[in-house]
Amino acid sequence: MACTCGGHNEALFAQLDNVIEQHKDQRGSLISVLHKAQGIFGYLPEEVQAYIAEKMDIPLSEIYGVVTFYALFTMNKKGKYTFNVCLGTACYVKGSGKLLEKLQEELGIGVGETTEDGMFSIECCRCVGACGLAPVITINDKVHGHLVPEDIPALIAEIKAAEQI
Amino acid sequence: MNKIKSFEELKALQAAERAKIAVRDGQAPGSANLARHHVMICAGTGCSSSNSMLVKEALIKQLAEAGLDKEIDVVQTGCFGFCSLGPIMVVYPEGTFYHHVKVEDVAEIVETHLKGGQLVERLLYDIPGQNKKAPDMSHIPFFQKQKRVALRNCGTIDPENIGEAIAHDAYQGLGKALTEMTPAEVIAEVEKSGIRGRGGAGFPTGKKWKFAAGYQSAEKYVVVNADEGDPGAFMDRSVLEGDPHSILEAMAIGGYAIGATHGFIYVRAEYPIAVHRLEVAIAQAREVGLLGENIMGTGFNFDIDIRLGAGAFVCGEETALLTSVEGKRGEPRPRPPFPAEKGLWGVPTFVNNVETLANIPVIFTKGGEAFASIGTAGSKGTKVFAMAGKVNNIGLVEVPMGTTLREMIYDIGGGIPDGKAFKAAQTGGPSGGCLPASALDTEIDFDTLVAAGSMMGSGGLIVLDETTCMVDIAKFYLEFTQDESCGKCPPCRIGTKRMLEILDKITRGEGTMEDIDNLETLASTISSSALCALGQTAPNPILATLKFFREEYEAHIIDKKCPAGVCKSLLQYQIDPEKCKGCTACARNCPVGAISGTVREPHTIDTSKCIKCGSCIEKCRFGAISRG
Q1: Are residues A110 and A146 in the same domain?
Q2: Is B42 on the interface with A (CB under 8 A)?
Q3: Which domain does A44 fall in, by range?
Q4: Which pLDDT score is estimated for B231?
Q5: A39 shares a domain with A104
Q6: Domain co-membership, A94 together with A159
Q7: Which residues of B touch A143 (CB under 8 A)?
Q8: What is this structure's pTM?
Q9: Can you spell out the DSSP letters for B402-440?
């Protein structure tokens, strides 16, 4: 199969080659490779999956099956800032559902979506384990705790100010 | 550190390492070139989230500037358990416990305490109801009723320093097993301890090892289930972050017992700190020869690899977990054959949970009998609970099996915030149930929880107060299991969906009494026919809430009311004309123009327009608006 790397930087595929090479003698390493591939590309578009399929000699259908099974793998490009609202029980009983509503309202997008300018995405997760700070939202892995819906506009404004938008 | 070539060398090393940290036992430093103070800063996920690492950096910098860096050691530790007080700092030899420490507080701690020898009073813990400050942890009620076995080293050692772990008994149990016991004796010792799996079902660990040992195979595996998926449970993460060597040691003991030379730790990718600590621990253990070939000169080989999960709750089920370690979609397999016979890549394997394994080394250093002396008749040892939700003291609590909910929630947890009333305690996460106030004095162990209609699960303990709607909570868990159902078997894939639809209907006020019957029928069908534990236990939250809080379901169905005021569709907003002053604040803030009235006259709400957003209640200064 021909490589369809198209818009993607060849350097990124070279990094992916290294990853595949490191794992080539390891049994059952597909998930590890996919984690690293997502780290390199930010997401797992079909062309990346096809590339891995060819290099690792695994059917593309199987790779697609794995990618779509696990919540942490995504085939959509994420925004520069991903708001991850914790919907674990501790956060939920302390009102994280309301944070999510407010966030969707403020950004005008739903869960799993990205704003048109490619700046913000909203995701939900099940417990980041910071239950002492509930309810929490992580923004690109930085935890913000003890939030109320009224805090949301300020969180967004802070990023917009830093990005000058 | 040199390679450790025998058990004797390990023992000698332990004594030397222990002397280095004598300050933490409240003693004077062992020699003049050792630090006089150790400042422990929690580097667990909870405290890190509240910037404990910035505090640590600031402290290191200020100590260096003050020329005190040789006299005072700064140590990052695992979790102390009292997460709602984070960031936490403990100063030895005094054992002073500071909480909510901010970067701005560091200068005062250096000046007043580390230089001046006086405690920084304002950062000490206020003992509730006593008008007194706690000088150290032993005066804090949260810690007084706890007994730390699995979490013994969390908060006391630097998890990235194998020397400190060795000082605290790490690998002593392995040394004893390898040099003084046969594999059969190792298994017998685990059986004698009576320990049962802490991951959910409570299966006896010794039995599990015995089965795996009984099958002949050139290749066998030890697998650790560190895919802690129950929302609100984080004890496994704490062990991995605070004491990773205890898991490596236990895996090696298990490997020796069943004849395996290789182990895998399957850990959630959502736990980056835990993964990092494991990587560091494995590398250090290999370097000193406590993993790898010919461990302590005994001829026993054992090595460990880490595999990352990728966000699938079902992978906490052991057969699904094994499929995922193999790099595939994490779908469960029918049992039998059990993993003990055909596990990872079809060879004999045992899968143990992190907290279970954290107890194993203690069984060998202290003896199976000593372990069995803690706990109840059927459940030995301690259990770690992640207590969260509507409770004052949020964090990890390790108590002997048989402790009551009342002791946990009121004595350790400090009761319910804001003077609200206790309604229920949810245990066992999405597979568990909830216990009402009448169960507060039940002694908690594996069997009493099942008898009371819930289960231990991995030890999540979410406290719910009067503002929680039990139908909504059942719906919350069903949304979770429905979302996480892998789709392989129809009872789980379709059944949970149907149950969720019915719950949704009830919370919208469209339910009928027949719906309750249908829920019960579906529940029994799903629990008897689903392929794995995820599906089999999915109906539990519904069954438990129906058992103890049936009247709430009936209120939703018959009276079309949500007694807790949570289910939006059932709420009606009303303005009390007696209290309303006609200030117009509500009308001006209503986003849909549902409120009308003239100035200084009582206003009214048009319920057909009202979207029940609650902004009017927030704006009313006279308490004239109510919902119910």
Answers
A1: yes
A2: no
A3: 10-69
A4: 81
A5: no
A6: yes
A7: 49-50
A8: 0.91
A9: T-BHHIIIIIIT---GGGPPEEEEEESGGG-EEEEGGGT
What pLDDT digit, counting tens, does each position of A103-121 carry?
Answer: 999 999 999 899 999 999 9
Domain boundary among A69, A90, A113: A69
User: Is the pLDDT at A24 greater than 90, yes or no?
Assistant: no
Quick check: B327 contacting A, CB < 8 Å?
Answer: yes
Going along chain B from its start, the domains and CATH numbers come out as: 35-139 (3.40.30.10), 162-372 (3.40.50.11540), 389-465 (3.10.20.600), 470-559 (1.20.1440.230), 571-627 (3.30.70.20)
- Please tell me the distance from the alpha carbon of residue B218 to that of residue B234, in angstroms, as a whole number: 36
- The DSSP call for residue B60 is H
Residues of chain A contacting B568 with CB distance shorter than 8 Å: none
In a domain, A127, yes or no: yes
In B, minimum Cα distance to A150 occurs at: B615
Cα separation, B381 vs B488, in Å, equals 37
For B391, which DSSP code? -
Cα distance between residue B405 and residue B89, in whole Å: 29
Q: Is the pLDDT of residue A164 over 90?
A: no
Residues A102 and A38 in one domain: no
Most B CBs within 10 Å: which of A23, A74, A82, A127, as the mutation test of the B interface? Answer: A127
pLDDT above 50 for A1: no
Residue segments in chain B with a per-residue pLDDT below the cut of 70: none
Chain B interface includes A35 (CB < 8 A): yes
Task: Tell me, yes or no, whether A102 and A37 share the same domain.
Answer: no
Whether residue A5 has pLDDT greater than 50:
no
Minimal Cα–Cα distance from A12 to chain B, Å? 22
Tens of pLDDT, residue by residue over A44-66, are 999 999 999 999 999 999 999 99
What's the number of domains chain A is made of? 2
- Is residue A51 domain-resident? yes
The HSE-up count of residue A95 (CA atoms within 13 Å, CB side) is: 14
Interface of B with A in 498-517 (CB under 8 A): none
Distances (CA, A) of A66 to A39, A40, B448, B487, B502: 16, 18, 40, 14, 31
- Flag whether A5 is in a domain: no
The pLDDT score that the predictor gives to residue A8 is 62
Cβ distance B310 to A31 less than 8 Å, yes or no, reads yes
